[in-house]
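JOB MANIFEST
job_type = single_chain_structure
chain_count = 1
residues = 221
[input]
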Amino acid sequence: MIYFLVLIVPTILLGIFAQMRVQGAYSKWSRVGSRSRITGREAAQYVLSKAGISDVEITATRGHLTDHYDPSKKRLVLSEENYHGTSLAALGVAAHEAGHAIQHATGYSMLRLRMSLVPVTMFASQILPFVLIGGFLFHILGLIYVGIGVYLVLTVFQLVTLPVEFDASKRAKAELVSTGILQQDEMGGVSDTLNAAALTYVAAFIGSLANLLYLILLTRR
C-alpha cells in the first residue's frame, strides 16, 4: 500500500492537474483573437510553405483538441475549432502540428525513433489491461514481469516523446513570429497554451515511470 500511495497516487493527481491546466489555458486563449485574423489552417499552410513543404495534406476533424500530425500519411489534422479558428490558441496548436511535419521532412532523429517505437508501443498498450488483471486479480507473478516489460516500453516511448513535443513547440513559436503571423506581444498566449500541453506529456512520462517502479518493487517483495 505504501508503494501505491507514494508512487501512483501523486502521478494520478499530476495527470489530473495537467489536464485541467491544458483545458484552462486553451479555453482562455481560444477567446483571444489574433491581429492577423488568419485561421489555424492558413497558419499551418504558411509555416509549411516557408519550410518548403508542399506534400502535406491539412484536414479538419471533429472533437476537442484532436489535433495531430500523421507521418505515415503526411497528413496534418486539426480539430474543427482550430482549423477554422483565428485565436491565439488555434494558431499555436496549428503551428505546433506543422512543427511535427517539419521534423518529419527534415528527418529529425527523435521523431524517427518515436515512429520506430509505435508498433511495439501499440502492442504493449493492447495487452496491458490483460496483464494487469491477471497479475493483480489472480496474483500471477509471471504476468507482473510481463507488466514490467510493458511499462518499460511505454516509459521509453513517453521519454522519446518529450523532446519531439518540445522541439515542435519551439519551432512553432519561432515560425509564428518569423512569418509575421503573430507579433511578439501576442506570443504569451501561444506559449501558455503550448506549455500547458507539454505538461500533459511530462505527466504521462512520470506516470508510466511510476508504474514501472511500482511493479519492480512489488516483485522484490
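[summary]
The two ends are 12 Å apart (CA to CA).
The chain is about 75% helix and 5% strand.
exit_status = 0
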